[in-house]
Amino acid sequence: MGKIILRLDRVMADRKMSLNELSEKAGVANVNLSKLKNGRISAIRFSTLIAICEALDCQPGDILEYSPEE
Predict the structure, then answer these.
(1) Domains in the chain, please, with CATH?
(2) What is the pLDDT of residues 47-64, one digit of tens each?
(3) Under a CB-based contact definition with an 8 Å cutoff, are residues 63 and 4 in contact?
(4) H or E element that contains 23
(5) Exposure pattern of 35-51 as b/e (b: 16+ CB <10 Å)?
(6) What span, in angstroms and rounded, lies between the C-alpha atoms of 50 and 70?
(7) At what angle do helices 19-26 and 46-56 cross, to 10 degrees?
(8) What is the pTM of this model?
């Protein structure tokens, strides 16, 4: 089975945005963003994804990447 790779750290670096700044702009708890950034989650709510995309001015595909089974 393939897997989903989280690219939040890359998008944040491209936008020169810190975790604290993203937390403020998106209204998402810092600890939840940290788990997302480090790939320690198994699910994400659409409302959270929308808030992150709005704060970073990006698309969900910029943050989430599908990797097929090797």
Answers:
(1) 3-66 (1.10.260.40)
(2) 999 999 999 999 999 999
(3) no
(4) helix 19-26
(5) ebbeeeeeebeeebbeb
(6) 30
(7) 110
(8) 0.91
